Automatic annotation (TrEMBL):
Similarity field: Belongs to the ABC transporter superfamily.
Any one cellular-component term (Gene Ontology): plasma membrane
Species of provenance: Streptomyces violaceusniger (strain Tu 4113)
Keyword Transport: yes
Major location (coarse): membrane
Keywords, ordered alphabetically: ATP-binding, Cell membrane, Membrane, Nucleotide-binding, Transport
Keyword Nucleotidyltransferase attached: no
Subcellular location: Cell membrane
Disordered: region residues: 1-21
Residues of the ABC transporter domain: 24-274
Membrane topology according to the record: Peripheral membrane protein
Descriptive protein name: Oligopeptide/dipeptide ABC transporter, ATPase subunit
GO biological process: peptide transport
Length: 357
């Protein structure tokens, strides 16, 4: 990854210092991809902190920068086409611009990731047990027999039946839920301090979803890991995460504890996400209420607030600030929106909350 000076593309808040007690601290992160069509501004001045033993949920529509951010933390982007600037501190160690040798030592050991699609993330050429044992051998120097025993132990821990036999199976011999469990076992085999779970319950039935989320909670309690949960499912976040970061067009637009954000959201985009969720109290034939329009192109994001072309409330902000001035996300609890705090409260109480039920 390459470090460079911060792009000058709008007024941005000065980077805050790392949060007290934060194990992972991301400050003023920018990620740019060079393509034939131009430069994609995938992450645009993002900052957040995560402490040990806590789970941070990151939500937003596809293309909002959730996965790109966390792949950047692990240093998994192609440096030939990717430009990264900002600060990523993991346990006090700077990762931005770190040598590949340093990142390889950390990946799978201090930090690990559960990828969204285990069928493509797992190699079809090697047994599940071998793929779990390989990072354990690399980072601990264990023998083949010790690593195999550890792989069996982890398969048992994540609930795979007959782990002593299934350790020699290939990924295609596992069901979708079992492959996801195997991915979790591979990610946790070295007891990482930071675990990134990218849509860990996608395409799984609700029973298996609940089992996997309970498993992540149990393993966090056992190992004390910090967890980043990337998802578009606010129901999953509500039951799993401690803190919540809402992303849109590569930027953080709202953050706070899960309780704060879900009970009293402050950004129109968050209102739209909550309003688009189906409810048990709704009639069977009641249509869903999607956010109008489409996410902006990150090749040429709109000036000012990136959400303003889709926002219903720009006429309640004085002048054309929404279209010309980038709103600042305050430290701690808050939202990057030009609406006044009083107006947000009134709108939420009178218009949004009744619709949310």
């Amino acid at each position: 990854m390459t470090t460079l000076t911060k792009p000058d593309d709008g007024a941005t808040p000065p980077p805050a210092g790392p949060g007290d007690g934060a194990f992972l601290s991301v400050r003023d992160l920018y990620v740019r991809f060079s393509t034939e069509d131009g430069v994609v501004k995938a992450v645009d001045g993002l900052s957040f902190d995560l402490e040990r033993g806590r789970t941070l949920g990151i939500v937003g529509e596809s293309g909002s920068g959730k996965s790109v951010t966390n792949l950047t933390v692990l240093g998994l982007h192609d440096p030939r086409t990717t430009t990264v600037s900002g600060e990523i501190l993991l346990g006090g160690q700077e990762l931005t611009g770190a040598p590949e040798r340093t990142l390889e030592r950390l990946r799978g050991n201090t930090m690990a990731m559960i990828f969204q699609d285990p069928l493509t993330a797992l190699s079809p050429y090697y047994t599940v047990g071998r793929q779990i044992a390989e990072p354990y051998r690399k980072h601990t120097g264990a023998s083949k027999s010790e690593a195999r025993s550890r792989a069996i132990e982890m398969l048992e821990k994540v609930g795979i039946p007959n782990p002593g036999l299934r350790v020699d199976d290939y990924p295609h011999q596992f069901s979708g839920g079992m492959r996801q469990r195997a991915m979790i076992a591979m990610s946790l085999v070295c007891n990482p301090d930071l675990l990134i779970a990218d849509e860990p319950t996608t395409a799984l039935d609700v029973t298996v979803q609940a089992q996997i989320l309970d498993l992540l909670k149990d393993l966090q309690q056992e190992f004390g890991s910090a967890i980043i949960l990337i998802t578009h499912d606010l129901g999953v976040v509500a039951n799993t995460a401690d803190d919540l970061l809402v992303m849109y067009a590569g930027r953080a637009v709202e953050r706070g504890t899960v309780r704060e954000v879900l009970r009293a959201p402050q950004h129109p985009y968050t209102w739209g996400l909550l309003g688009s969720m189906p409810r048990l109290s709704s009639a069977v034939d009641e249509p869903l209420n999607p956010i109008p329009g489409s996410p902006p192109s990150l090749l040429s994001p709109p000036p000012g607030c990136p959400f303003h072309p889709r926002c219903h409330y720009t006429d309640q902000v004085e002048g054309d600030r929404c279209a010309t001035e980038r709103p600042v996300l305050p430290d701690g609890r808050g939202a990057a929106c030009h609406l006044s705090a009083e107006r947000k409260q009134t709108l939420f109480t009178e218009q949004i909350k009744p619709r949310l039920g």
